[in-house]
Amino acid sequence: MACVSPRRPWPGPNLLHALNQPKNIDAPLTPTNLNVFEMAFLPTGTLVFSAVSDGPPQLFITDHSGNIRSLGINESRFPSGSPDGHWLAYSQLSSGNWNLWLHSLDTGKERRLTHAACNDIEPTWTADSRTLIYASDCGRALWLTALYKRRIFP
After folding, report:
1. How far is CA 9 from CA 6, 25, 29, 39, in A?
2. What pLDDT, in 10s, does the model give residues 138-148?
3. Domains of the chain
C-alpha cells in the first residue's frame, strides 16, 4: 500500500504479489491515475480503498473482474470491511473533523456513528462483525489518539 502526498506525482498502481509464487508477475490492484491512501479486502475478495485523483479523497470498490467504481462517498478515508462482508466502516471529514460512518454493502444505506468535534479514525472490526475498535483524539490533544471500542450491533 502506498501513501503519497496528492500534491506530487505518485509512483503508480498498488501491486499484489503472491508470496507463495515468487516467480509470478505482480498483479496491479489500482489504476495509475489514483493516489491510494488505505485499502481493505472484504471477505469476498473485493477491494475497498480510499484515493484521490483530482479533489478530495473518496472511497472506491472493485468487483471480481477488477472493475473499479466510486462509492460516491467524498472526503472519506480509512475503510474497513466487516468480517461478515455486510458492512463498511470509514471516516469522513466534516467541518474539519473526521467522524465514523457505517455503509451497508447490501443496501447502500449509510449511518453516522460519531458526532464529535474531534477525530475518530482507522476503524477495524472485531471477529463477530458487531464491534469497532478505532483511534480517537476526543478528550485528548489533537492527534494524540487512544483506542476506543464500541459495540455497533446488539
Report:
1. 7, 24, 18, 19
2. 998 878 999 99
3. 15-119 (2.120.10.30)
